[in-house]
Each structure stands twice: as structure tokens, then as C-alpha cells.
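Input chain follows. Return C-alpha cells only.
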Amino acid sequence: MSTRVAITIGLLLYAVLMLMVSLFWMARVRRAADYLVAGRGLPVWVLIGTIVGTCIGTGVIIGGSGLAYRHGWAGCAYPIGLGLGTAFAGFAFAGMRRYQFMTLSEEVACYYGGHRAVVEFTNITLFLSQLCWLTVQIMGGAAVLVAVTGLPHNICTVLSGFIKAMISIPGGLKSVVYTDVLQTIILFCGFGFLTYSALASSGGLAGLHQGVPVEYFSFLGIDSLGGGKVLSLLLALVLGVIADPGRRLTMYSARTESGAKWSMVASGVIVMLFSVVIGITGIYTFHLNPKLSGQDDTLPWLVAKVLPPWLAGFVVVSVFSGMSSAANACATAAGTFFVRHIYPLATGRYPRNAVTAVRWALVCAFILSTTLGLYTGTIVDFVLSFLPMTMSGLAVIIVVGRFWRRTTWQGGLAALVTTPLVSLTIKLGHFQTGLWNDPVILATAAGFLAHFVVSSMTPRTVRTFEEVAQAMTNERRAIEGDSVERAAAAIPAVCQDDLEPT
């Protein structure tokens, strides 16, 4: 059996299995809360499976292994940063589960008295960010399919988008999390076989060490990549997790507050341990072929040229599973944001049938993201260069809002404006020395400083966290209860804030 035949069979079996699970949960959706937040009853083992699968997406699989190919253990920074951010989010924000939020924007609104300027900026930014990251996951899946099947790029992009949509749309969050559990099991089995094969054929870590530059085996590849770049990468990934609406949605869907906390912490530890696998994958590929044209070709080349057919098929299915998990998280978060924030912002009311509205929104989201993947070759560069600027600012206002009750909406806006401005100044100014080599460190520091200074100079927020949270609860009843009359009449009270200074 050829490698391509084995891969094709594996992908077909995977697609059929995931579709069956998704349709199984589709038949069990009874109300909007089941579809949007899985009835807020997810057990810890399911949460761990979906969080780990969400973390190990295109960035870790393709980006991390590619970075390991060029700089050794520096590739571990990808999963380590995501793992640290996930564990920190569990410790710091799992308590938000008690308020039964539906989106991260609801939590942000409570930190800033429900002020419309901060709330609407957060709503729109997070919704668009999920569409951009969905595009990245679709393109990542397409890149793998192109490399290992030889099919045209356009066909692979459509196939990648279709498979991910087929898994995400029918059953909502419940189908997503349970398919993620299966996908995570597949992912770890595939990469477990790959790691064993790499170590066995190269003589273990000692054998790998002999075949690569000595700086590859420095701590986190600092001697190869540079300490400043490693630190910047770790910080960007941690901040990205803090401001990730998909992980928040998972926490809000936990059965208990303690379950939300410890599932995040355990998932973070597991993802950090997985970093060793990513490092070995990249270093092993360099050991075999140090002359690849691009570092993103690391895993596709290894699969297509080195692995036996059965293992190549298993690894490709594993890679696609990881990317699908990440894409599912982006899609479900985007759908929830649409029905909770974007639809009422545009129409002044909630949709009469929330589940139907979300499904159609997801259809449109997948069509849009797949189209972007078809007709642009720079979307990944755009997202990785510019989206983190906005996400870093959101992470700043979330962290400050969580731990400093003196925050004001003016301080939040100052941070949201300052962070991207500093990032753009550094990027466009082409500063190339010291910490200026990557903008995330200085931009984040500037955002924190601006927040503290402006908040200290402006009046305290009048509306308390609990008051805004209660207003959010009243609004959500129009969606979760599927009441047509209430949905038609309910206009978000927090979004109608009178904009009086607080």
C-alpha cells in the first residue's frame, strides 16, 4: 500500500467517525444552552480532552515543529507558552464559572461597569479574531493535505474547510467537545508512534544530539534563537490564551467551578509535556535532512518521505485532528459571539431561534474563512503579525480588570489604544536591537502602564461587577430559554449603557 492510499483511507475513516459523533449530539440538542454552552454540564475528563486538543493546533504542529527544525528545543516554546497560559487561566479565571457567562465579552463588561465603548470594541474584535484564526486552521489543514496527497491547493482548502464544518455545525459545543476528545486521543497516539520511531531510528536523544548543531540542545534553544525572541514568543502565547474566547467558553461550560479550574491546570501541564514531542519531531527531521527549503515543510516532508505508509496515514490523521480541534473551538466561539453580541448589535434584538441562527452563522463563517484560504497567501502572516497586537491589549485589560478593582473604562480604552500603537511603531520603525526586535514585550508593558495611569486619574466605576453580571444573566434568559417574546423584546441592557462617566 502506498503512502497516499494509506493517508486517504485514514482521512476517510476519520471524517466518517467525526461526522457520526457530531450527528449523535445533534439529535440531542433540546435548547440553545445545549448548543451554545453544552448545558453547562461538561465533566473534567471531557474538558481536558477538548482543551488539550484546542491548544495543539496549526501553530503547535506546523509552527512548533518548524521552529524546532531551525532552532532545536526552541520549538518547545509554542506548546509551553500555550500550556502556561492555560494553567494560569485556570487558576485566575475559573471562578468566573459561577456567573454562568456565555462569552468572554460578558466577563470583560463586568470588569468595566458595562461601558459600551469597551464592550463593543471587545465584541467586534474577538468575533473577527475567531474568523481569522478559523482561516488559519483551514489553511493549515490544506497545507498538510497538499503535501501528503498531491492534490491541488484549492481542492485541499475546500476539503479542509468542509471536514471542519461538518464536525462543528450539527451538534454545537457538545458535538465539538466530544469529537475533540476523540481527536486528542488520535493525536497523542499518532505522535506517540512518531516519537518512538524517531528515537528508535536515530539512537535516542544522544543520537539526535550528534546530528544537529550543539546550540539546538540549549535550554529552550536560547543559544540558537535568542533569549529575547523566546521570551517574546512565550509572552505572546500566554497573552493569547488569556484573551482566547474559545477557552473561556469551555470553562463556562464546566459542570462545576472546581472542574473548570483543575481541567485547565491539568490541560496546561499536558500541553507543556507535549512540547518534548514537538521538539523531537523538528530535530529529528533536521537530523535526516538539514536542507529543507522552508521550516513549515518539516512535518509534511517527514510524513511524505520517511515514515512507513501506515504510520504516515496515522500521523496525518493525528495532525488533522489537532487542527480540527482548534478550528472547532474558533467556530463555536464565533457562533456564540454572533448570537449573543453581533446579531443584537446589528438588529437591536436577539434572534427568535438562537440555534438556527448560530448554525447559519457558522455556515457563513466557514464559507468566508475557506474563501480567504483559497484566494490569499498572506493571511497567516497577517494574523500572526497584526492580530496579536489587538489580542495583547485585550489580555492587558482582562488581567488588570480581574486583579485590580480600581480599573475604569477610560483606563481600559487607554490600554486598548496604546498596545497596538506601540506595536505598530516598533514594527514600522524597523528597530532591530535588544527587546525592540519583537514588539510584544514593550507593547504589553506600555499597555499596563497606560491602564494604571489613566485609571488612577479617572473616577471610580459606579456599577459593580455583580450588578453588571446580574444584567447579563437577565439578557441570557432570552437566548437560553428560547423564548420568542423575550428574545424579540430584549435589547442588551449593558450595551445600552448611557455612557455617563463612571
